[in-house]
Amino acid sequence: MGNKKIRNIRLLYIHNFLTDFRFQTAYLVIFFSQILGSYTAAMGILAAENLTSALMDVPTGFLSDRIGRKFTLAAGSLCYAAGVSCYALADNSLWLLMGAILNGLGFCLFSGNNSALLYETLKDEGLEDQFHHYQGRTDSMFQLALGISAVCSSLMTSQGLRFIFVLGIIPQVMAVVVSLMFKEPSVHVKSEHNDFVHLKQAFTKIIHNPRLRLLTIGRAISYGAGEASFNFRNAYINSLWPLWALGIYRALNNACGFLGYWFSGRIIDRITAPYLLVLSEVAEFKNEVQQGGYFG
Predict the structure, then answer these.
(1) Residue 42 to residue 235: CA distance in whole angstroms
(2) Which of 98, 103, 181, 282 fits 83 for a cystine, CB–CB 3.0-4.6 Å?
(3) Where do the domains of the chain lie, and which CATH numbers do they carry?
(4) What is the band of 65 on the pLDDT scale with cuts at 50, 70, 90?
(5) Do 97 and 45 contact (CB within 8 A), yes or no?
């Protein structure tokens, strides 16, 4: 593999790690509720973040095709850095809402773009058939970062949650710097149609393809319910465990996630992606039911 392409993949490992090296993740709902006065309002901020992600996903996909993968990645990193800064400085709902919108926009800019950057980097070298291996391992950095930062945050709770949130700005700024070091892949999948024609074709395929339609609906429900229950569960755990131990709880979850991502390529080779998708959704649903995530 060419040196430029090795550089991109190594940088993606580093960038993914920095992006989710967030001391504040385990304490989002708790910190927001301290500012807003209720857990309901705190979950409303997280809902605004997810809503922004949903609404802006398609427009940011167009942007990625227009300005390139590298600069879309840099824009996403900048949005994350600004969003985390808004959270850290917030003393009212407006600042939190601004942070939610910026974080949601950052997620959209990464969604699809980063996978495309990796795929096109591998395609330059004729290694696109190894995409699922590289995708799993680069994505495992998210879980590794979340786990390590959660343990670190447990050691800093005595300084107050505001301190943890302010410290969380540093990795995001570093991610912005790293994003500017990428090399734009030379291979792109060009469309013969304009963006709106392409969007219409994609929407038509989803409507008329039963399997694709069910997959889209299923993933939307799974992600929405999963994110809501996972974030609110921290508030529940905090009522049972001391505040410092909350990071340990999250780290244990992330450790399992890291192993799953790291070995996902090998697992896909053995049992194929469709069966793995079904098994993962069944396991996730069973876990949520056991912990009361869906049915209280």
Answers:
(1) 11
(2) 103
(3) 3-183+193-291 (1.20.1250.20)
(4) confident
(5) yes
Closest CA to 28 of 47, 15, 14: 47
DSSP codes joined into one string, 193-221? S-HHHHHHHHHHHHHH-HHHHHHHHHHHH
Contacts of 201 (CB under 8 A, 6+ apart): 193
Cα–Cα distance, 64 to 73 (Å, whole number): 9
* 209: region left, alpha or beta (phi > 0 left; psi from -120 to 50 alpha): beta
Residues 6+ apart with CB under 8 A from 94: none
Contact between 103 and 54 under an 8 Å Cβ cutoff? The reply is: no
pLDDT of 79: 96
As to burial, measured by CB atoms within 10 angstroms (0-12 exposed, 13-18 middle, 19+ buried), residue 162 is middle
Closest CA to 25 of 178, 293, 223, 233: 233
pLDDT for residue 112 is more than 50: yes
Mean pLDDT of 4-32: 89
Confidence band of 6 (pLDDT split at 50, 70, 90): confident
Looking up tokens 């096109």 gives: 120
Distances (CA, A) of 251 to 117, 155, 159, 246, 264: 29, 13, 20, 9, 20
Q: Which of 269, 284, 267, 136 is nearest to 219 (CA)?
A: 284
Residue position matching structure tokens 């609110």: 232
Residues 96 and 183: their CA atoms lie apart, in Å, by: 34
- What is the DSSP track for 6-75? HHHHHHHHHHHHHHT--TTGGGHHHHHHHHHSSHHHHHHHHHHHHHHHHHHHHHHHHHHHHH-HHHHHHH
Spatial CA neighbour of 162 closest among 75, 99, 217, 91? 91
Residues in the chain: 296
What whole-number distance in Å separates Cα of residue 241 and Cα of residue 236? 9
**Cβ distance 150 to 25 under 8 Å?**
yes
Question: How many angstroms separate the CA atoms of 225 and 232, rounded?
Answer: 11
